[in-house]
Design goal:
Blueprint lengths: L9 H9 L3 E7 L4 E6 L4 E4 L5 H4 L3 H5 L2 E3 L4 E4 L4 E4 H15 L11
Antiparallel strand pairs: 1-2, 2-3, 4-5, 5-6
């Protein structure tokens, strides 16, 4: 029996195979909201307060970000903070599964 080494987990494989990338982010500090806009036009939402370095940042600091690794992540130089598309997708999956926001949740019969 032969085994192969898989260097990618399922989320990394999805990002790579589908060419998913962060296209832009929209930050609303007053609403504790960060919208992550993907190249597929999907929008992921995150609470700014989830990230301590972002939570305590000014609007100007939050607005001073750079997309890194061809849109696979976001870097805030002044805050020394890096966030990844993989992490955002993982959070989105958890939120969907645990909050019942999935389009499939109304099709599941208990």
């Amino acid at each position: 029996m032969s085994t192969s080494v898989n260097d990618f987990d399922s989320l990394e494989r999805l990002i790579f195979e589908e060419g998913l990338r962060i296209q832009a982010i929209d930050i609303h500090k007053e609403l504790d909201l960060m919208l992550i806009i993907l190249n597929t036009k999907a929008i992921l939402r995150q609470s700014i307060s989830k990230y301590p370095l972002l939570k305590n940042a000014s609007q100007a600091q939050l607005s001073s970000y750079k997309l890194i690794s061809n849109g696979a992540g976001i870097h805030w130089h002044e805050l020394d903070e890096d966030l990844s598309l993989k992490g955002f997708l993982k959070d989105e999956i958890k939120r969907t599964v645990y909050n019942g926001d999935s389009p499939l949740s109304d099709k599941i019969v208990a």
